[in-house]
Design goal:
There is one protein chain. Helix content is 36%, strand content 14%. By secondary structure, the chain is an alpha/beta fold. The strands form two sheets. A four-stranded parallel sheet has the order 1-6-5-2, with helices on both faces. It has a two-stranded antiparallel ribbon with strand order 3-4. The protein is globular. The protein starts with a helix and ends with a strand.
């Protein structure tokens, strides 16, 4: 093991790894993202207590939630969607050759000791399972993985909440949302998902998980679908809220 460590240090010195975000050379104790970039990630201080959207003041309901039917109980949001996290998630989703999730250290650092997720740690005993939002089969073949499933694996290790991938299927290969406005996204999501295991959701309390929520439409649509087919309650979580 000592020889292997020395060899790895030598390789890193000769062919250094670079931070995915800022492109600076990583130190020996850093993995994929440098400590400086990690330090730039900020937890939301003021946000809607329902949808998790960052706001100017702490609010139980933001202006959007006041006039929109929200089917989930609450959304947990770990971080602001700033430039650092935006670059990180873009690498994960749109550069499948750069498998940033091969080493989960960065994900554990993002989840553990996060103030916004302490309530989730309390709630975990009342949750039956985590449901990572699926991606279309063609996109998964291209990317090689579903980032939400990888996040679910980290959550399971951190909080002991099991996840399931045999509940929901995405049968519509939607366009990338970053290029669409709100109405176009809503249209793309119409009938995009279907339940493939109805018995497994009956009377269950479920945590929907995704990497990012931009308008909340995906989370809300799936929550509605699950509740209409027998789920008891739905909570949601994302790494960052896009608005």
């Amino acid at each position: 093991m000592k020889i292997k460590k020395i060899l790895n240090n030598f390789i890193n010195f000769v062919i250094p790894d670079y931070c995915f975000i800022c492109k600076e050379v990583l130190e020996n104790n850093e993995t994929q993202i440098c400590d400086h970039c990690i330090s730039l990630l900020k937890e939301p201080e003021c946000f809607c207590k329902k949808c998790g959207k960052p706001t100017d003041l702490n609010q139980d309901w933001c202006n959007i939630c006041k006039y929109k039917k929200i089917y989930y109980e609450k959304m947990f949001v770990a971080y602001y969607y700033d430039e650092t996290l935006k670059k990180f998630l873009k690498k994960v989703k749109y550069n499948p050759s750069e498998k940033i999730f091969e080493n989960f250290d960065i994900c554990y650092n993002l989840f553990l000791n996060n103030e916004q997720l302490k309530e989730l740690a309390i709630l975990k005993d009342n949750l039956d399972f985590v449901l990572p939002i699926p991606i279309h089969l063609e996109r998964q073949k291209l990317r090689g993985y579903n980032q939400s499933v990888l996040l679910a694996q980290v959550l399971e290790d951190c909080y002991g909440i099991h996840y399931k991938t045999d509940i929901l299927k995405k049968h519509k290969n939607t366009k990338f949302f970053f290029s669409l406005n709100k109405k176009e996204r809503e249209k793309e999501l119409e009938n995009a998902f279907e339940i493939i295991n109805f018995e497994a959701i009956k009377n269950k309390n479920i945590l929907l998980l995704d990497d990012i929520s931009t308008t909340g439409t995906t989370m809300n649509n799936i929550s509605k679908l699950l509740l209409e087919n027998g789920a008891n309650s739905i909570f949601t979580m994302c790494l960052a809220h896009g608005e």
